[in-house]
Amino acid sequence: MKFLIFYFSGTGNTKMILDQYVCHFQEEGHSVDIRNIDDYFNKKIEDNLNIYDKIGLFYPIHAFNAPSNVLEFAKNIQKLESKKPLFIVKTSGEPLALNNISSLKVKSILKKRGIILENEYHYCMPYNIIFRHSDNMAYKMWESAKKVIPYDCKEITAGQKRKLKYIPCGRFLAWVFRIEHWGGRFNGKRYKVKDECIKCGLCARRCPTHNITIENGEFKFGKNCLMCMRCSFHCPKNAIKIGLFEKWKVNGAYSFLPNENEEERHKKYCKKSYKKYFERIEQRTK
Ligand SMILES: Cc1cc2nc3c(=O)[nH]c(=O)nc-3n(C[C@H](O)[C@H](O)[C@H](O)COP(=O)(O)O)c2cc1C
User: Fold this and answer.
1) What is d(CA 256, CA 12) in angstroms, rounded to the nearest whole number?
2) Domains of the chain (ranges plus CATH)?
3) Confidence check: pLDDT of 43 > 90
4) Which end of the chain, N or C, is less packed with Cβ atoms under 10 Å?
């Protein structure tokens, strides 16, 4: 089978999941071409999608939706000559069923282009905004994802469909939450750089929408912010202030290593949902 996978990953979680998928597909003898949606900002899609057997789309959930660059990217895909099966893979910080609605819009955009959703998977990965999960929790999430991904890959290659359940009024709710796309652009212009900044330029070089420019040592934040957190999450000096969401900022990569001694933050937060999520994976992989 020949796969073409498009992905967006703000801070790396979704890319980690993608790498696992690619390994498993290749181990099963399939060929996989990967495209980073970062590379399509203001650029046309040159690929001929007609030559592939299945299309994959990977992204992090942003406010119960796909990030705005993913929607823009989907709109730029050509209408295909014949229908193609699609699998969507998403990551998010919490396992709430409300997150399932995040594919409704992108699914309908792609359907009009002949790319039809057949499989959909969702993995919990540590938050890159709101609060920092403990490394132990991040480890648990990552181990669970790695455990279940081979089963999910097998379903895709075997043509066994799997859809997530959408809550009632999901389409309307997703539409309401898409205010985040506008809010991100509004808030992004309010980003500031603190004195701790060493002007390494990592943020500007890696911004997926080229929204950060440095002129004569001064940082400028434009109007194309996706709120993906790449700049502030990976800033080596934690020197970027993220506007109205400064209190929710998470800085620095997770180790994904077990650390039993580390205190779990917000122990009660979505406790039941996380428990159910981990139990579901245990059940499925028995
Ligand atoms: C602007 C923004 C909005 C987010 N919204 C949600 C959300 O609605 N639900 C959720 O569970 N996680 C949410 N998250 C957390 C991310 O989906 C999660 O940390 C994801 O794994 C990040 O993936 P990445 O590292 O590939 O960008 C949000 C993160 C950002 C930056």
Assistant:
1) 12
2) 2-174 (3.40.50.360), 191-248 (3.30.70.20)
3) no
4) C
